[in-house]
Amino acid sequence: MKSAVKFISHPLFILTLRVALGVVFVVASLDKIQYPDQFAKNIANYKLLPYQWIHGVAIALPWLEIIVGSLLIMGIWIKANALLTVSMLLAFIFAVSQALWRQLDISCGCFSTDPLAHKMTRWTLYWNLIWLSWGAMIFFFRSEAYSLPQILRRKKAVEN
Length: 160
Known about the structure:
The chain is an all-alpha fold. The chain contains seven helices and no strands.
């Protein structure tokens, strides 16, 4: 058990998770930013939000995803961004779970706004749970190793 904890808390492993989760969020945002009207339709298909909120969420959420993902990749404000990713993933897990429970035959809208691109399955939920665990590990374990601020601090210390 100690060796497993040692492995998953190792700075290189956490770096790998941090960059991978950041890439997931950046990639997920790209199509949504390009096609906010179609993403709004994806959101509406979940039948969760009041109509008045759908367009605002369709515009704001992808930008939040790309910012949080980019900051995770660079290692800036890691704990705050890990917490934001965990919060978003909990919301996504809730949305996907209720859609699966209600047997809605919809696209998740996760990586593509095309309604025919990827129908939601249990694997959609499983991937969100996996990414949630990554976000939790980034939050709870020492994750500032190999971050941009740390690299810049080291460079400045060497120069002085």
